[in-house]
Amino acid sequence: MKNLISTLIILFGIFSLQAQDIEAGKVLFKSNCAACHTVGKGKLTGPDLKNVSDRVSPEWIHAFVKNSTAVIESGDAYAVKLFNDYNKTIMTAHPHLSDGDIDNIIAYIGDASVAVVPVTPSGGTQVLNDGTMPVINDTAQSAIDMPVVVMVFWASVVLISAVLISLALIVVRLLK
Ligand code: HEC
Hints:
- There is one protein chain.
- The chain has 176 residues and is mainly alpha-helical.
- It has a domain at 17-116: Cytochrome Bc1 Complex, Chain D, domain 2 (Orthogonal Bundle).
- The chain is 64% helix and 0% strand.
- The chain is built from 7 helices and no strands.
- The model is unreliable at 137-141 (pLDDT under 50).
């Protein structure tokens, strides 16, 4: 029983820590990356970073964010192609960002990749850069709220279970 409670507390801790990382990553993204990148809202100067973790590894992102020129000059085929596709635009080097900072940004991009639902003003579907067909417009409002609702739901489930189990333990103690 004790183990179960510890597990629940740890799970809840991980959940809150993750939320913090995403929040920190969001702030860093807004100040360092948003001028050239969106997550799910199309290309700007640089590619849409939606689901970027499906395309490249965290190590690759770390190296590229710190010094993209070094990665391109190393002959990395993917980086060279991307660089050419984006008219040889040099992405700003961010040597001041720590590995932790970049991990937080990656966490934010991952979170936003799930949360973003593209909306076309006229309704109907819209073809994204990556060719996937997103959700239809008339459910857009609820679809945007969905991940938050789901997160709150699971947080509540964890919390309520923890409370119920603690209560049960107290009752067991009192009955002894
Ligand atoms: C000055 C504009 C600019 C800024 C600021 C910028 N980028 Fe980029 N980024 C680019 C361009 C342009 C590319 C395409 C590759 C190239 O031209 O070197 C790119 C490519 C990338 C890629 C590879 C994308 C893919 O589809 O594989 C990642 C990941 C990335 N950037 C992350 C970041 C992060 C994280 C930040 C903020 C810390 C950032 N970028 C800030 C312009 C920028």
